[in-house]
Every structure is written in C-alpha cells, then in structure tokens.
Amino acid sequence: MITKLRAAAAQWTVVVPVVSFVVLVLTWHEDLPGWVVGVVACFLMGAVLAAVHHAEVIAHWSGEPFGSLVLAVAVTVIEVALIVTLMADGGEKSSTLARDTVFAAVMITCNGILGLSILVTAVKYRTAVFNAEGTGAALACIATLATLSLVLPTFTTSSPGPQFSTTQLTYAATASLVVYGLFVATQTVRHRDYFLAVTPEGRVLDEEEHASPPTVRAAGVSLLLLAVALVSVVGLAKGVSPTIEKAVDDAGLPHAVVGVVIAMMVLLPETIAALRAAVRNRVQTSLNLALGSALASIGLTIPAVAIASTWLSGPLVLGLGPAHMVLLTLTVVLGILTVIPRRATMLQGAVHLAVLAGYMVLAVNP
Question: DSSP assignment, residue 198?
Fold first, then answer.
C-alpha cells in the first residue's frame, strides 16, 4: 500500500509541473476572467508543492547545505525575473516594487519561516538546536546587505528622495554580489560543516541516517522538473498579479501590499520545505532555507534591478521608511539574540512571529 502511494505521489509530481507550464503558456499575457484566475491559482499551488518535492529529492541526493542552496537560488532567480517584468510593465507606480518585495522577503524569511521552524521543532522536541557559526554568518550578511541596499538610500543626498545615484547603486549592486558570492563559497566549500544539522549534544550530522539517496538519473529528472515547476510558479503568479493589484486598489490598501503578496507566493516552496525539515528535527536545514533565501533575495535582486534601471523609464526607489527601518533593526537584534545560545525554545519562535505580524499590520495599515 505504501509503495502504491509513493508511486502515485511520484506520478503526481511529474504531471503537475508539466501541466502547470502548459497552463502558463496558454494564459501568458491574456486578460483572464475571474474563474480562470481561480483555476490558475490552483495550478500555482500544485506547482509549489511539486517544487518542494523535487527540491527535497535534490537535497537528499546532494546533501546539505547544497539542497537548501539550490532551492533558495532557483526561487530567487525567478523572483528577480518576476520583479523586473512587473517593473517594466508597471511604470511609475512600480518604482518601489523591488524594495517592497525584497523587504517583504527579508521579514517573511527572517521572522516567519525562521519563527515557524523554531516553534514547530520546539513543540515536538522541546528545544531547537542549530549551528551558531553558520546561522550567525548568514544573519551578519543579511544585516549588512539590507543596510547598504535598503537603509542607506533614505539618507543619501546625491539624488532626490530615497534613491541611489548611479555611482551609489553600482556600489550597492557590486557589494551585494560579492558578499553573496563569498557566503555561498563559505557555505559550500570552506566551512560547509557550519551549515549542517547538529544533535542536541552538538554532534554534526553529515548525512541523513535513513533512506538511500536517489540515483543520479532521478536527481537529474527532479532538477529539470524543479526548474519547470518554479518557472510555472512565478509565471502563473505574474498572471494573477493584475487581479491582486486590482483587489489591493479596490480595497484601498497601500500598493506595497502587492510586494508582500508576491513575496509570500514566491517563498511558499521554501516555507513548506523548511517546515517539513523542522518536523524531522533538522532545524538547521530550515534556517539555511530561511536565511539563505533572504540573502539571495537581496544579493541577486539589487544587482538585477540596478542593471534593469538602465532601460526602465521610472525611478528606482530603494530606501525604507522610518517604521520599516525600526522593524529591520528589531529583526536583526532579535536574530542575534536567538542565534547566540545555539538553541531556541517556543518563546523565540513566537517572538519572531510577533514581529512578522507587526510588519503585516503596518503593511495593510501604515
């Protein structure tokens, strides 16, 4: 019976990405009626779940932290493409879309995914134990790049408003790429053991202790289907984005809510994968996904929009407002206090979620 269920699940995760991609092709640049948007949303969710499955297959084959890195980078690359596409189509009102989406990604990953993962692990195993060296290094990179890319533009004077001049934007883009590249090298080559799961006694778990890894062929198929699923996720998200924007405008909500919704949709695969790892008491994998996604979001989005700004007609607003700078500072300080003890309880997870809830309230009612 179990074998049949696994076979059915395998077939489902192969069929859904392909069908979702077909739906994407059929609906691309079409004005969709309400019922079609509902159908597209269903395929979007199916593609997300399929992406999580194939990412876990790749992670099992390659081992940590490579599996987390593959999913984080793959999702972020396509997220960047979505942001640039929407900015190109949106004109003046999309000038803050990159900032809103990147900041939303940072808040959702560093408070939402991280907080949920710690909470789930602590509820089931009393405490969440992780490697402070790797987690702290990721948090330091996030704090640095978020400050350089999202805080400094508010205080510069070369350009009017919370914007970078061309020289400043070039520096921020270069710094983002360099820091992110060094982080990836540290995570995968120089200090890979800093990002591996640990036992409650602090012993590093270099490999899973159950189930043999998939074959190279199976991993290759999953990598291909992961790419198809992620392209479908972001493409279908773009298809439903006009409906989201209209709903936001009709509700009288700030346009920044669009960036929040986009970040939530795009980060759904990481969220599900992180929670599944937390249930298995692999909270380090969850933290790799959360913080790696935040870092990739900044490290790849800022250079991409910097290049795109050379042909986009509207301004590129990156600077955060005072309330969001306070939330960013609180997130960094709270992250440090969570990481230093090398273990966390339900309390830390709940506090992170409280910060995320505050961000959501301010996004809807600034």
Answer: B
